[in-house]
Amino acid sequence: MKQRIITALVAIPIALLLICLGGWFYNLGVAVLALVGWQEFYRMLVSRDAKLYYVTGGISVICLVLSAAVGKAHYSVPILAIAILAIMLEALYNYSNGQWVTSVALTSFGVLYIGLLFGHFILLRQMPGQQVPLLAHFTLDRGEALLWVVLLGTWASDTFAYFFGVAFGKHKLIPAVSPKKSVEGAVAGFVGSILVVMALGVKWLDYAPEKVLGLAVIIAIFAPLGDLVESILKRNCEIKDSGNFFPGHGGVLDRCDSLLYAIPLAYYYITLVLV
What are the DSSP calls for the chain, one per residue? Predict the structure, then answer.
């Protein structure tokens, strides 16, 4: 518990600072998370005797994140095309390992899961729009405010689910994937996330309630699904945590699993409906 508290006291202020500063400070922070996430993914799969292409995959991940950072998100398709071709060529060079198809598939999956999805953390923070008032004398960029809505909605889902699950959970949700999660916790997480996103989206950002409801439902549904997907990955690799980047809290993928689902889907909903 002491280690968890110390990590939180250090990590939370750094995260807050990077989000508030935005720009390259935030972008480089996301790039670091993506690279560490790739390393965690690689180590998890290698621990199960899989063969992945570390350098080719890592370069592809960082190129996808940086394309978002420099405002060239439309480059993601050609980057992915070149990345997959490069992965297949490296696999061809190493064909003697006997896992050509598996190695190409797993490396490509890691690039998509980590590089493409982490890039959306930057895209959401960069969204243009009018400044948003905060307290009496401060304003936030519209992208930062929208990022906070998604972050707080996702954290509300996790927090409500955890505490209500501990207090009232009696029926297992998907015991084969995550034995500790309960139906009662999942319902509480869904409701809590809806309430937080609706309050922030309507009262703070002044969007129409019916439009914010769609965003709230997306976050409330897909944030916990992102958690379950990473749980399946860890269970398949027979490990408890993806890493130890956050001592006492696990790895990057452990902390960002819900956001890897919530942020990209929220970004596209906001782009199509709210903005």
Answer: -HHHHHHHHHHHHHHHHHHHH-HHHHHHHHHHHHHHHHHHHHHHHHTTT----HHHHHHHHHHHHHHHHTT-GGGHHHHHHHHHHHHHHHHHHTGGGS-HHHHHHHHHHHIIIIIIHHHHHHHHHT-----EEETTTEEE-HHHHHHHHHHHHHHHHHHHHHHHHHHH--SEEETTTEEEEEHHHHHHHHHHHHHHHHIIIIIIS---HHHHHHHHHHHHHHHHHHHHHHHHHHHHHT-S-S--SBTTTB-HHHHHHHHHHHHHHHHHHIIIII-
pTM for the whole thing?
0.94
**Spatial distance between the Cα atoms of 150 and 170, rounded to a whole number of angstroms:** 29
Q: What is the pLDDT of residues 209-245, one digit of tens each?
A: 999 999 999 999 999 999 999 999 998 898 988 988 8
44 neighbors 237 (Cβ within 8 angstroms)? yes
What amino acid occupies position 206? D
Rounded to 5 degrees, φ, ψ at 42 are -60, -50
> Minimal CA–CA distance to 240: which of 226, 225, 251?
251
Alpha carbon 99 to chain centroid, angstroms: 29
pLDDT in tens, 110-137: 999 999 999 999 999 999 988 998 877 8
CA distances from 111 to 64, 118, 145 (A): 9, 10, 28
